[in-house]
């Protein structure tokens, strides 16, 4: 029962954070889309990249890949420019497939949660990820709950104290509501089957 509760909390938190965090992850120079692109250029095989784009965009990726390989052969400076253009092309098409705008490649970034998610895939076990995210969610709940409880004790002392309680209460309840809604959405998605796109590693 305890593990089930922890898993639900993890799912809720990850789903709640997905739109912002995962998008940034895929846009970064150390994200999975660019990593797949680097591998493709290193091996001369575009296959690792194709899973990151919709079927209708595959031809554009293949054409960009061929042109990039041609330009790379010119020299070091040309290779750097060509690689960047290819990364931008693949990420742009990936984002288009998500229904999101491409706003350019972002610098390499470190996100503990996303790194833990990738490590969990590499390890074949989600236990460490569950512990990490569960601890974060539990602490966030404790802080909000304690703040609301303390503010409630003084809520009727004067108007300012009452407003402080309302602010703490709203923050607390909205956080719980967000977790609940995210968990409900995660259960619905699981029932519907695998997601159309993923942000994991190769």
- Oligomeric status of the shown chains? single chain
Low-confidence stretches: 1-9, 11-23, 195-202
- List the total number of helices: 8
- Can you count the beta strands? 0
Average pLDDT value?
A: 80
Ends apart, CA distance between termini = 33 Å
Order of helices and strands: HHHHHHHH
Question: Main β-sheet, in a few words?
Answer: none
Helix content: over 70%
Shape, please? elongated
How does this structure look, described?
The protein is mainly alpha-helical and 202 residues long. 76% of the residues lie in helices and 0% in strands. It has helices at residues 2-27, 32-43, 47-50, 58-72, 76-98, 112-123, 127-153, 159-192.
Short précis:
The chain is mostly helical. About 75% of the residues lie in helices and about 0% in strands.
Topology of this structure?
Layout: H1 2-27, H2 32-43, H3 47-50, H4 58-72, H5 76-98, H6 112-123, H7 127-153, H8 159-192
Helix pairs in contact: 1-7, 1-8, 2-5, 4-5, 6-7, 7-8
Question: What would the keywords be for this entry?
Answer:
202 residues; mainly alpha; elongated; disordered N terminus
